[in-house]
Design brief:
There is one protein chain. The chain has 233 residues and is an alpha+beta fold. It folds into 2 domains: 4-65 and 103-174, no CATH class; 178-233, no CATH class. The protein contains 8 helices and 7 strands. A 5-stranded mixed beta sheet has the order 1-7-2-3-6, sandwiched between helices. Strands 4-5 form a two-stranded antiparallel sheet. Helix 1 crosses helix 5 (148-173) and helix 6 (186-200) runs antiparallel to helix 7. The longest helix is centred in the last third of the chain and has 26 residues, at 148-173. The chain is elongated.
Length: 233
């Protein structure tokens, strides 16, 4: 009997990314990718020629990528002990302050349709519609119906892999991968100043900035500026 892990592996293996976005993930801004997830219904009986396709539409929102270090990642909340052990091993191999890119995503599901046609025909129509509309940030995924979120994760992996080298080159060309004497990436310092500006404009809560400072171990250094920002707000 197949285990749930076996089914996840099978779903990932049988997921096909039929169309990747023409544009890569932005290095300096949020990227909104529209996806068309094509699946055959799980209730379809084998051998019966009842052409029917399930189409799920939504958006994968890729937040602006962050430059991080293994030390920083080990301080982020929401990771398991296994993940933290992995960050520690990376730290030992490459150094606690070795810079890398950290991507975060969220999924916004929008529509689900049952179409009386074959998956191939549905894919052809969507491809033509994308070309007519000139959608450069659209993807078509042929997934597995009951594990379509696994199929979506495979797509996220593929778009990340195709974007990371270009993003690293852009960051490096601007010196954003440089690490200061305190082990803080230049990009992190810029982000902190950006958060101070957003706090002054009332666009974020004080806790967002406070948490960022604490993650980097910089709260005491910026404490006076932080308290001043609260009083002026």
């Amino acid at each position: 009997m197949d285990t749930y892990i076996d089914r996840i592996e099978l779903a990932a293996k049988n997921t096909l990314i039929l169309r990747l976005p023409k544009q890569k993930l932005s290095a300096f801004d949020q990227t909104n990718i529209k996806y068309y997830m094509i699946t055959e219904p799980i209730y379809k009986e084998p051998g019966i020629n009842n052409a029917e396709t399930i189409l799920r539409q939504g958006y994968v929102i890729a937040e602006k990528p962050r430059i991080v270090t293994p030390y920083y990642l080990s301080r982020l909340e929401g990771f398991s002990s296994e993940a933290r052990n992995y960050f520690n091993r990376i730290s030992e191999m490459y150094g606690a302050d070795s810079p890398g890119i950290y991507y975060t995503y969220r999924n916004e599901s929008r529509e689900l349709s049952i179409i009386p046609d074959t998956p191939d025909s549905v894919v052809d129509k969507i491809n033509k519609d994308i070309e007519v509309r000139g959608e450069n940030l659209s993807a078509i995924i042929l997934g597995i119906d009951d594990l379509w979120d696994v199929s979506l994760l495979k797509f996220i992996y593929e778009i990340t892999r195709s974007s990371v080298d270009g993003n690293l080159t852009q960051f490096e060309s601007l010196g954003l991968l440089n690490i200061d004497s305190a082990g803080i990436p230049f990009e992190a310092r810029l982000r902190i100043e950006e958060l101070f500006d957003k706090l002054a404009l009332g666009e974020i809560s004080p806790n967002v900035l406070k948490n960022e400072l604490k993650y980097w171990g910089l709260f005491e250094i910026y404490q006076d500026q932080f308290l001043t920002s609260l009083r002026s707000g």
